[in-house]
Amino acid sequence: MFKKKIKAIRYLSRILFLVVIVATAGLVQFHISLGLLILAIVSGASFCGWLCPFGLLQDIGGEIGKKLLKKRYRLPVKYQKFFQYFRYSLFTLPSLGLGIVFIYDPQISLLSLLSNIYVSIGAWMVLIIFVILSIFIDRPFCNYFCIEGSLISLQGILRIFRIKRDKNTCISCGACDRVCPMNIEISNKKQVNSINCINCFECLELCPKKSLSFGLLKLKNLFSNK
Ligand code: SF4
Ligand code: SF4
Description:
The protein is mainly alpha-helical. It has helices spanning 2-23, 27-31, 33-43, 46-50, 53-69, 77-89, 106-114, 121-133, 140-144, 147-155, 175-179, 202-206, 220-223, and strands spanning 161-165, 212-216. The chain is built from 13 helices and two strands. The chain has a two-stranded antiparallel sheet with strand order 1-2. Helix 3 packs across helix 10 and helix 7 (106-114) crosses helix 8 (121-133). The chain binds iron/sulfur cluster (2 copies). One iron/sulfur cluster is lined by residues 163, 179-180, 182, 184, 186, 192, 197-203.
């Protein structure tokens, strides 16, 4: 019941945000930067889990995939880590004269479409490819390519609230690791310090022992986290 409630609230918050974007022809996205910065400082990349329309589209793709395929595919951990760090290097593209790739950024393309701004066929295709990929793997764009997501994640590097694990009740079943759409290893940490966490609370909902919670950062767990 609890599980379904959080998921439903997250879908609702993202649909409402999407409606606001359409109603304001995209202006809201440009006027809430300060709000998003504060949100990131407090709780990290919550925008990605609770508001982003392209995150919503990929999660819908993921729900379809779970129903049709009954399983999710993942890159081997070492490749995952490589590509997740690779995402943070994409900031350098404009300085390399490759800013043109932003025309094909599906997160921007979707925002443009919602704001009634022209989107090229190529950008449409990239958007569709990532939605199709999300049927097989969790949030392929968020995990490995989203520049806005990586910027928000970096703003949340010192975030005050984090997912925490109670070692005393955890049975190390690994269910949290398997459900995390951002491929974070949770089951061997006292606290999730990864800046990739989007606060979707999927791990918290699925934990059979209710060992996970969302609470104030513990400084000592920044350095000794097992
Ligand atoms: S799902 Fe809960 S019990 Fe299982 S490993 Fe994660 S924290 Fe521990
Ligand atoms: S650690 Fe938990 S809250 Fe964070 S992204 Fe993974 S499943 Fe979501």
